[in-house]
Amino acid sequence: MLVDSHCHLNFEQLSSELDEVVARARAVGVGHMLTIGTKLREFDSVRTIAERYDDIHCTVGVHPHEAESEGDEVTAAKLVELSKHPKVVGIGETGLDYFYEHAPRDLQEKSFRLHIEAARETGLPIIVHTRNADADTVKILHEEYEKGPFTGVIHCFSSGWEVAEKSMEIGIYISISGIVTFKASDELREHVRNIPVEKLLVETDSPYLAPVPKRGKTNEPSFVAHTAAKVAELKELDPDRLAAITTDNFFNLFNKIERKF
After folding, report:
1. What are the sequence ranges of the domains in the chain?
2. Which of 12, 74, 226, 228 lies 20 to 30 Å from 27 when distance is taken between CA atoms?
3. What mean pLDDT is predicted for residues 58-66?
4. Can you tell me the mean pLDDT for 229-241?
C-alpha cells in the first residue's frame, strides 16, 4: 500500500469527480490520502471530504500565498481549536514562498511562526511549503525548535541540500513529489539518493505536478505510484519495499491516525 501524503481534493479539478478520483487511487494500491488545508475560509470543504471517506484525513492551515488575505484570521489558538476535529491530523500547509511572493515576506513569516506554535501545542506535524526561501526556512525552523520541539514535513521538496539536512537534524521528514520524475530534476534526484529512506514520504500535490508519464494531465492521488517507483529506483529498493517504508514513515509522523493496514 502507498500513501499520498499531500493532495488537494477540494480543488475543483478533483472535487468535480471525487468518487472516481478516490476509486482510481484505491485501485492502484493507495491506502490513504491526506488532503491539505490552504485557506481557513475553505476549511469546511476540506474537512467535509475527510469526513466522507474512511481513508482520507486532512490538515488545517493557511498557505503562504494567503498570508496577507487571511492574515487577520490566523491565530495559533484558532488553528489549535480547528485541529481538535478527529479527522484533522496536521497543521498547514504553511511556510515561505519567495518565488511568487503573493504576500509580503514579513506576513509569511508571521503566519509560519503561528502555525509552528500551533503544531507545538497540539503535537501535530506541520506541513511546510518552501520555495526560493531556503535560508529563511531553515532559520525559522531552528529558531522555533529552540523554543520547544515539534514535528513536521517539508512537502514537495525541491530545495537545496541544506533544507533537507537542517530539517532532518530536528526530526522533520522530506516528502517527494512528481518533480523527481522531470527531465530537468537531476539535482533533486541526487538529493533523494542521499536522504535516508527512513525520512522519506511520497506525495502528488495534486492537482498539480503530474509525474512522468502523466505530464500534462491533471494530477491525482493514483499517480503517486509513478513518483514512488522513481524514488524506489533512486534508492535501489524494490517498489513494494519502498511503499512499505514510506507508509510506515507516514503513520509514524501522522500518528493521530488510527492505522488500518
Report:
1. 2-254
2. 12
3. 98
4. 98
Full strand arrangement of the beta sheet holding 56-60 = 2-7, 30-35, 56-60, 88-97, 126-131, 152-154, 173-176, 200-202
Binding site residues, as ranges?
A: 6, 8, 93, 129, 155, 205
Query: Cα-flanking dihedrals φ and ψ of residue 231, to 5°?
Result: -65, -40
Homologous superfamily, domain 2-254: Metal-dependent hydrolases (3.20.20.140)
pLDDT at 118 over 90: yes
Please give the pLDDT value at position 71: 84
Per-residue pLDDT, averaged over 89-117, amounts to 98
Backbone CA torsion sign across 142, 180, 19, 56: negative
In which residue are the cell numbers 514510506 written? Answer: 246
Number of Cα atoms under 13 Å in the Cβ half of residue 62:
31
Q: What is the pTM of this model?
A: 0.98
Cβ atoms of 97 and 127 closer than 8 Å: no
Which residues does the annotation place in the binding site for a divalent metal cation?
6, 8, 93, 129, 155, 205
Strands 88-97 and 56-60, by their bridges, are parallel
